[in-house]
């Protein structure tokens, strides 16, 4: 057991044996500078670091912890499941129960396959879309993240007719030659891409509410046209709801678009985060007609040793049962809105341009005059101010995402007093910054 108790000492020790000291890059605080906090434990809306400092947690493990940390019903379910066995490599009733619970809320999905991470789910969904359509081309949007599969680590080429470029070393250019990257919320580009290559497009993958460029909604005209073009050209519309799924609404972001666009449904959906309640669990699903292409029924191969893990499914199922209770999302959404409205008001009060948006338990705010509509606009400015604000908030016991292009998350465990304390900290931080 270590006797080191400071974050700095732990970070130094970690850097000797783990690249950059972290097991996922954003945790290293590179965007904002400073020393990452090593978390020792968390309860409810709070995390406590190695030095005993307590923070109001607005990352919630980057989305999963919608009930807060250590919810008693979830803890009970996990403890019970763990005593029954960690992993069997054989089917269980609980997997079926979890899939039924997900499908019940998402009418576009008739069948679902469970996997262990969002990356795996998105990657498998693309393979399935390609296998089901017999086409190769994949369209994605700048600023949307769908995990780190090779074909998805790509940025736009110089024009629509040119190939994209890998954004990571180790990804050969040939691997991304079937991926086209377009601007989010740009209907014209979408039209042009389908006019050029419509017959080759297997699928369009989109974060309906993008949480990997802070918080940017797909506009209704953009989503409407995207749906029409996919249908017209026989391409599958894949909603990546790893972040937005069961987080912005019980029916996920697709239920919100279905309210705004008559008859709207995506063809495929990818889930993660909340459906695992903090355990490694994700899923991809579609109609039976599409899912029948997947092994063992069809020729599209996909598998996993820990897929549908019994402890993870217990955690996910207990979480879904809590969030399906009447009034859960109304209360969570109202609380998140109080936070965002409060931040905007504090910006006004302190003379700092600040705008924000939220849905359910997910939010974003920008040091800007208007809400950005695409990645370029998100990245246009405000990073220095954000970094100062981030550290000023951290010093005051509020843990925001350590990069301005990340969304924030509120849980059911955040109290009115937590929101008020956060706004008070923001007022002081903006005055000082
Ligand atoms: C929208 C979206 N898709 C996919 C992923 C990848 O999920 P994971 O980190 O579980 O591999 C993420 C992760 O943040 C995500 O936000």
From TrEMBL:
Keyword Membrane: no
Names of the cofactor(s): pyridoxal 5'-phosphate
Keywords from the named record: Cytoplasm, Isomerase, Porphyrin biosynthesis, Pyridoxal phosphate
Subunit relationships: Homodimer.
Pfam families on file: Aminotran_3 (PF00202)
UniProt key word Isomerase: yes
Name of the encoding gene: hemL
Reactions it catalyzes: (S)-4-amino-5-oxopentanoate = 5-aminolevulinate
SUPFAM superfamilies: PLP-dependent transferases (SSF53383)
Gene Ontology terms describing biological process: protoporphyrinogen IX biosynthetic process
N6-(pyridoxal phosphate)lysine found at: 273
Annotated metabolic or biological route of this protein: Porphyrin-containing compound metabolism; protoporphyrin-IX biosynthesis; 5-aminolevulinate from L-glutamyl-tRNA(Glu): step 2/2
Protein's name in the database: Glutamate-1-semialdehyde 2,1-aminomutase
Location(s), subcellular: Cytoplasm
Organism in which the protein naturally occurs: Azohydromonas caseinilytica
MF terms (GO), sorted A to Z: glutamate-1-semialdehyde 2,1-aminomutase activity; pyridoxal phosphate binding; transaminase activity
CDD domains named in the record: OAT_like
E.C. numbers: 5.4.3.8
Origin superkingdom: Bacteria
Main location: cytoplasm
One cellular component (GO) term of this entry: cytoplasm
Family to which the UniProt record says this protein belongs: Belongs to the class-III pyridoxal-phosphate-dependent aminotransferase family. HemL subfamily.
């Amino acid at each position: 057991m270590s006797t080191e108790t400071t974050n700095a000492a732990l970070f130094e020790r970690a850097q000797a044996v783990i690249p950059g000291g972290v097991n996922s890059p954003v945790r290293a605080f590179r965007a904002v500078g400073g020393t990452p906090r090593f978390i020792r434990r968390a309860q409810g809306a709070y995390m406590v670091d190695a030095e005993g400092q307590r923070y109001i947690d607005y990352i919630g493990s980057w989305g999963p912890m919608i009930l807060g940390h250590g919810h008693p019903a979830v803890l009970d379910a996990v403890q019970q499941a763990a005593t029954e066995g960690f992993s069997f490599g054989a089917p269980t009733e609980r997997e079926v129960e979890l899939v039924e619970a997900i499908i019940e809320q998402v009418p576009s999905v008739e069948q679902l396959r469970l996997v262990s991470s969002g990356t795996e789910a998105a990657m498998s969904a693309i393979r399935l879309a390609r296998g089901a359509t017999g086409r190769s081309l994949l369209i994605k949007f700048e600023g949307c993240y769908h995990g780190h599969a090779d074909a998805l680590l790509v940025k736009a080429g110089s024009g629509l007719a040119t190939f994209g470029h890998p954004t990571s070393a180790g990804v050969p250019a040939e691997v991304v030659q079937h991926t086209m990257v377009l601007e989010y919320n740009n209907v014209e580009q979408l039209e042009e891409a389908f006019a050029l290559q419509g017959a080759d497009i297997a699928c369009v993958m989109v974060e309906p509410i993008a949480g990997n460029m802070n918080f940017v909604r797909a506009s209704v005209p953009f989503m409407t046209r995207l749906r029409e073009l996919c249908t017209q050209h026989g391409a599958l519309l894949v909603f990546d709801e790893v972040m937005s799924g069961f987080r912005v609404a019980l029916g996920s972001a697709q239920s919100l678009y279905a309210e705004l666009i008559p008859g709207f449904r995506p063809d495929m959906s990818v889930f993660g985060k909340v459906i695992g309640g903090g355990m490694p669990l994700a899923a991809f699903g579609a109609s039976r007609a599409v899912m029948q292409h997947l092994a063992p029924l069809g020729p599209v191969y996909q598998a996993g040793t820990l897929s549908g893990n019994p402890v993870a499914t217990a955690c996910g199922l207990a979480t879904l049962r809590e969030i399906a209770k009447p009034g859960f999302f109304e209360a969570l959404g109202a609380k998140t809105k109080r936070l965002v409205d409060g931040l905007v008001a504090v910006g006004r009060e302190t003379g700092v341009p600040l705008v924000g948006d939220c849905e359910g338990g997910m939010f974003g705010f920008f040091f800007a005059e208007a809400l950005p509509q695409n990645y370029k606009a998100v990245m246009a400015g405000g990073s220095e101010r954000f970094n100062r604000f981030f550290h000023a908030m951290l010093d005051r016991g509020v843990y925001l995402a350590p990069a301005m292009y990340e969304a924030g998350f509120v849980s059911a465990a955040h109290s009115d007093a937590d929101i008020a304390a956060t706004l008070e900290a923001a007022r002081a931080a903006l005055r000082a910054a």
